[in-house]
Amino acid sequence: MRIIGGKYKGRRFNPPAKNWPTRPTTDFAKEGLFNILTNRISFDEIAVLDLFGGTGNHSYEFISRGCQDVTYVDKFGGCVTFVKKTAQELGIEDHINIIKGDVFLYIKNCHRKFDYIFAGPPYPLPNIPEIPDLIFEHHLLNEDGLFVLEHNPNHSFEDHPHFSEVRNYGTTIFSFFRP
After folding, report:
1. Model pTM?
2. Residue 164 pLDDT level (bands cut at 50, 70, 90)
3. Distance (Å, rounded) from C-alpha 79 to C-alpha 54?
């Protein structure tokens, strides 16, 4: 895996993925997503929430592009340890708040709003369809914010009241939501 843009562009990181419950977003899909976001977001002025953060792939990308305020949440200890180590190696510890915990409990107990929220849950997770509702029920997104949910073709959110668009990168799909 590599960081595709910004200050750390080209920097590779190799998580010890053996027996990890992660499915990192492919560079192809991530590059497509960030091409869209570059035209919509001022990276250095936003607060980002990275749910089911896994290897930290999205968090690093935002920080590399100038974001100073990223919150990363994942419950798998191996991922959290890897992200802490990588943040230290990159010297970005001041820009990332790493939380080891259940994403659903975090959403329920969070009292903060974000400008951009990304969720890349494990595809077999049975309650993926609930995630957009939870984000909006708990008011985690600022008025002009954007929520992006990564999922596979087994899910469609086009009938969700906050759905705005979808982008398809093979079996990786990004559904966009707005308040």
Report:
1. 0.95
2. very high
3. 6
